Amino acid sequence: MIRRCRQTCGPAESLQAVRVTLVNRRRFLLQLTGGSMAALFGIPSAVLASAADPWPTLEAVLQHLLPSEPNAPGANEIQARQYFEFVINDSRIEQQERTFITQGCTWLDQLSRQEHGQAFTRLSEDQREQLLRRTAQSEAGENWLSTLITYLLEALLTAPAYGGNPNGIGWRWLTYVPGFPLPQPGNRFMELPL
Questions:
Q1: What is the pTM of this model?
Q2: pLDDT tens digits for 134-152?
Q3: Which of 28, 66, 146, 155 could lock 83 by a disulfide, CB 3.0 to 4.6 Å apart?
Q4: In whole angstroms, how large is the CA radius of gyration of the chain?
Q5: How many helices (H) does the chain have, and how many strands (E)?
Q6: Buried b or exposed e, range 163-177, using 16+ CB within 10 angstroms
Q7: Is 52 exposed, middle or buried (0-12, 13-18, 19+ CB in 10 A)?
Q8: DSSP state at residue 69
């Protein structure tokens, strides 16, 4: 569908086709049971334990995906975790999407315990890289990482009122001037019904 649209559609229609395909794929994956998703992640269902706190694992993954550099903000500087907390608590984002993010952390941590005998947060940088690359080899894992990267980029570019990009650090790094007025914590964008 995407290839066909690229040949016959304009840029806006092509982007919409990509989005529809990703959303449909994500819905399919999210409709699978936890055990089936765990199998796609490469974790035997017997290894799955009770859900642990996903935040330390999520924070470690985000820092690995967007590390701090001398001239570029990383996940810590853009307050990616705070932005993800906003996303997870935002009722306008589909519950399946929010659950997918947190369950992916649990699955990754379980895979880490299975492969290395310890939590993902305790792995070396090389072990984390290896485990994330293995995760990306499954369709569910690739989709999960893609979802994280999407929200990570949003954290870099969002108005600070939403929890990320404190004091416009991402905008300054990209030399971007945002539109005004900017939303404030008590006056954030609310999607209006059609």
A1: 0.71
A2: 999 999 999 999 999 999 9
A3: 155
A4: 18
A5: 9, 0
A6: bbbeebbbbeeeeee
A7: middle
A8: B
Provide the CB-side half-sphere exposure for 89 (13 A, CA): 8
Tokens of 2: 């995407």
Task: Give the pLDDT score at 29.
Answer: 42
Per-residue pLDDT, averaged over 89-95, amounts to 91
pLDDT at 87: 93
DSSP designation for 187: B
* Mean pLDDT in residue range 162-187: 88
Distance CA 54, CA 37 (A): 16
DSSP label of 184: B
CA 1 from chain center: how many Å?
25
CB count within 10 Å of CB 194 equals 3
Q: Is 182 exposed, middle or buried, given 0-12, 13-18 or 19+ CB atoms closer than 10 A?
A: exposed
Q: What are phi and psi of 2, to 5 degrees?
A: -65, -45
Q: What is the average pLDDT across 68-81?
A: 95
Burial class from Cβ neighbours inside 10 Å (0-12, 13-18, 19+) for residue 12 reads: exposed
Q: What is the pLDDT of residues 115-133, one digit of tens each?
A: 999 999 999 999 999 999 9
d(CA 86, CA 189): 13
